[in-house]
């Protein structure tokens, strides 16, 4: 494949990405209206895993600031090549040994959405303190589908973990809950309703209003339903950027 062809395909993907972003916002507005909610209560995180910096830049240039990545190696390679006012969300499973590279390498990381046990919360808390950055917003990831392949704390443990983050991790800001529904979307409404129930329990225990506790739920295949069921943060990848491009093994 020659360079001109690659450049042309990247450019057409970028144009498609910007058009797709506009279409996503229209769909978010419609879903919010249907649910009697204000669309400015819902954040769209453009999930750019496996996508090149040039494509992210085009979507940024169209006025979008919130981007998400699943892999530490990818985000620490991409973030320095992109504008500093991008608000990065880390949404993948995070291992303890990757916490320092992530926080040191991405000063404009605004949120880690995947805190699923006390160990990772403590590690984040310690590293944020050590490098002297402002408190980091975190979401507690809840496994609402009961699948063993999914990360996340059991629903019965979400109050305990949220309490630990809020009371024992002074360099973290507990900001809400996140879940990934079933891949085939069969039980998605139940998954999302369960996360909303977890939020009610957490807010009651911590004495905070529910509107101060985010619900990160909904991806390309189910974000409209998630908005109807109260999501404040939808994570949209393939609908904006096209199918993922994994390297061939």
UniProtKB/TrEMBL annotation:
Keywords: Pyridoxal phosphate. GO terms for molecular function: pyridoxal phosphate binding. The keyword Hydrolase does not apply. Residues 29-244 form the Alanine racemase N-terminal domain. CDD domains: PLPDE_III_YBL036c_euk. Its cofactor is pyridoxal 5'-phosphate. This is Pyridoxal phosphate homeostasis protein. InterPro entries: Ala_racemase_N (IPR001608), PLP-binding_barrel (IPR029066), PyrdxlP_homeostasis (IPR011078). Pfam families: Ala_racemase_N. Belongs to the pyridoxal phosphate-binding protein YggS/PROSC family. It comes from Arabidopsis arenosa (Sand rock-cress).
């Amino acid at each position: 494949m020659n360079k001109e062809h690659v450049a042309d395909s990247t450019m057409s993907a970028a144009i498609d990405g910007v058009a797709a972003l506009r279409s996503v916002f229209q769909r978010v507005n419609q879903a919010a209206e249907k649910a009697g909610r204000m669309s400015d209560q819902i954040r769209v995180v453009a999930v750019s895993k496996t996508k090149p910096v040039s494509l992210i830049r085009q979507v940024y240039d169209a006025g979008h600031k919130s981007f998400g990545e699943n892999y530490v190696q990818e985000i620490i390679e991409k973030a320095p090549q992109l504008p500093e006012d991008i608000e990065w969300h880390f949404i993948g499973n995070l291992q303890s040994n990757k916490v320092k590279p992530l926080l040191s390498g991405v000063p404009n990381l605004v949120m880690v959405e995947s805190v699923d046990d006390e160990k990772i919360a403590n590690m984040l808390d310690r590293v944020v303190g050590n490098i002297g950055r402002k408190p980091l917003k975190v979401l507690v990831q809840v496994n609402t589908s009961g699948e063993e392949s999914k990360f996340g704390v059991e629903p019965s443990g979400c109050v305990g973990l949220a309490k630990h983050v809020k009371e024992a991790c002074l360099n973290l800001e507990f900001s809400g809950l996140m879940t990934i529904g079933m891949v085939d979307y069969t039980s998605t409404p139940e998954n999302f309703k369960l996360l909303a129930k977890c939020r009610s329990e957490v807010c009651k225990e911590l004495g905070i209003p529910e509107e101060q506790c985010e619900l990160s739920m909904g991806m390309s295949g189910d974000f409209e339903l998630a908005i109807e069921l109260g999501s404040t943060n939808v994570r949209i990848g393939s609908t904006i950027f096209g199918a993922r491009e994994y390297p061939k093994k």
